[in-house]
Amino acid sequence: MGRLTGFRYRKIIKKLKKFGFSFYRQAAGSHEIWYNEETKKFTTIPNHPGDMPEGTLRAILKQADISPDEFLKK
């Protein structure tokens, strides 16, 4: 198990809001687009039940230009 396991949608959203992201629009199916006005970055987040797979969370952080260490600290 990696350091980025055990995160659910709500916890990820809570942390992304601390980085300045806000809901932008609904995407296909259960996916959402979030946007950071300061950095002009978009990220797509699946709104699924259960824990987010570590690879998916890493892809979200890469799109948002947030390092895993920064994410875990906030």
Tell me the layout of helices and strands.
Elements: H1 9-18, E1 21-26, E2 31-36, E3 41-46, H2 54-64, H3 68-73
Antiparallel strand pairs: 1-2, 2-3
Overall description:
36% of the residues lie in helices and 24% in strands. The two termini are 21 Å apart. It contains 3 helices and 3 strands. Strand 1 (21-26) and strand 2 (31-36) form a beta hairpin. It is an alpha+beta fold and 74 residues long. The protein has a 3-stranded antiparallel β-sheet with strand order 1-2-3.
Key phrases:
Metal Transport, Frataxin, Chain A; alpha+beta; 3-stranded antiparallel beta sheet; globular; 3 helices
* Main sheet specs: 3 strands, antiparallel
The shape is globular
Q: Residue ranges: pLDDT <50 for 5 or more in a row?
A: none
Order of helices and strands: HEEEHH
What is the typical, i.e. mean, pLDDT? 95
Strand order of the largest sheet: 1-2-3
Write down the Rg.
11 Å
Number of strand elements: 3
β content, as a range? 15-25%
Give a brief description:
The protein has 74 residues and is α+β, with helices and mostly antiparallel strands. 36% of the residues lie in helices and 24% in strands. It has a single domain, classed as 2-Layer Sandwich (Metal Transport, Frataxin, Chain A).
